[in-house]
Amino acid sequence: MKIATFNINNINRRLPNLLAWLRAAKPEIVALQELKASDREFPRAAIEKAGYGAVWRGQKTWNGVAILARNAEPVLTRDRLPGDADDIEARYIEAAVRGIIVTSIYLPNGNPQPGPKFDYKLDWFARLKRHAKTFLKQDLPVVLAGDYNVAPTALDIYPTRSWDKDALIQPKSRAAFASLITQGWCDAIRELHPEKRIYTFWDYKRNRWPRDAGLRLDHLLLSPMLAPRLIKASVDKKVRGEDRASDHAPAWIVLK
């Protein structure tokens, strides 16, 4: 079973890119982020024609998350992260697909920091950690997939000092991610590639894609029930180099 996470950065603008990748990669399950489309604007017909069922939660102009399933209909289990009834941003969705639970997470960026946006990021992380713990208590097969907006270690960002003040690599951001992992989650890409520089995001600015000046922001975390089934993990890097591409590339895993 191939499961991917892909920050599409505007699903309607990048729809041809997405459909071409789906045809080539043939993932069974895909978590999408940054739809930048309202619920009505989600391209359901095109997704279905490509052979995928979908659940989604849109938001006009920004945010938005979805889960696609090849030749199947995802069963929506939750369309928002619990813990803050006043948080209306479309950043979390989860569904049951083919016997497992999959999330699509679009964690807050947190910039500028310090400030209220960074506080929101850390609070969101704390809420995610509390919710993730409920999965572990029930010993469920879960993939926490999404754009976490965190490069967890120095290995997950190209050698530079230009991001030192950015929320993506702040010690508190990294500590929050590490704290989630220590609950018992397996960082799939790092599990199979412990010392390799692998990136999933290349900013449009400063010629970063041609220079391979990337960061690993998109992660697939496996619950203890699924971790032993992990056999492959990688990133479809070439997708980032296509015309009109998202600034992210799909990260994926294969479970036996």
TrEMBL record:
All residue ranges annotated as the Endonuclease/exonuclease/phosphatase domain in the record: 4-248
Top-level taxon of the source organism: Bacteria
Cofactor names: Mg(2+)
Annotated InterPro entries: AP_endonuc_1 (IPR004808), Endo/exonu/phosph_ase_sf (IPR036691), Endo/exonuclease/phosphatase (IPR005135), ExoIII-like (IPR037493)
Keyword Cell wall biogenesis/degradation included in the entry's annotation: no
A Pfam family the protein falls into: Exo_endo_phos
Coiled coil (residue ranges): none
Keywords of this entry: Hydrolase, Magnesium, Metal-binding
SUPFAM superfamilies reported in the protein's UniProt record: DNase I-like (SSF56219)
Xref: PANTHER family: EXODEOXYRIBONUCLEASE III (PTHR43250:SF1)
Family, similarity comment: Belongs to the DNA repair enzymes AP/ExoA family.
NCBIfam families: exoDNase_III (TIGR00195), xth (TIGR00633)
UniProt-recorded name of the protein: Exodeoxyribonuclease III
